[in-house]
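Q: I'm writing up a methods section and want to include an example of the input and output format. Could you take the sequence below and give the corresponding predicted structure tokens, formatted cleanly so I can copy it straight into the document?
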Amino acid sequence: MPVNLTAYDKEHVDYEDPNFRLKIWTLHHPSQPSAQYGLWHYHEEVELIAVLQGTLSIETPHLSYHLQAGHVVLLGSNELHRSHKHGRDDLLYIVCHVDMAAFIDPSLLPYLAAFTGRSANLTQFNETLRKYPASIEVIYQLIHQMLLDMTIQQRGYELSINVSLKKLMYTLIQIDDAHIIKPMDPQLAEKLRPALVYIEQQLEIPFQIADISSKLNYNSSYFAKLFKKGMGMTFTSYVQMRRMKRAEQLLLTEAWSVTEISGKVGFTSPAQFYQLFKRHFGCSPRQFVEKRTLPKF
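A: Here is the clean output for your methods example:
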């Protein structure tokens, strides 16, 4: 049966805490039969699903996954998919959306391109997981633990979730028989490391790729290809990502105006900063601060 891809939507994920880019919750579908699939959709975030009760089908343009209690599925960044409830039994499952780039620190940069979906399709791991039921159980429990941590939010819950995500990534690497995850070549990482240090040191001022390539004695065109090969994104995209990360830190820790902060992260035009910030976070800088600082009841 041909797959109709005409109706789809790029989903925007709203985080409870925009500074902690993970959203996890449970979905419940009551005891009633359903013959309809949900709409096709996709999002930048990696998605993890763990079924607690009932039967759930997840369909991508190329494969279908029929999940029962205890099963998990992994959907890579921008993977087009839709879901379907089977049978009359209650369906209860956990959904987790995570911006992997926000959880990969500099020590893990060799894995950035792979786990953010820029050099690997993480959805391919579902076939591998079928051969490793013990690893399915590990991932299932990790998703449970992240839900518990995010729900209770005891002191230090962010660290616990970070640990769970790192263990999940390690579990996937351990069963990666097909070499889906290809870490950056160590020699390439060594070449790029000075550039990454320079970027962090110079975020407050405007600079171009030619400024860095000349300091490292590279041709600009060659360095641009080298950077994209290693990082899985263009030099400009990476610098914008780092400027936005610095901007969110300043918005929440300093009493500066948006215009002042735009200058502190290398923008000569506050309007350009505003547009990029809204595209990156889905809200204005002022709304970002209000969401983060309003008291919770």
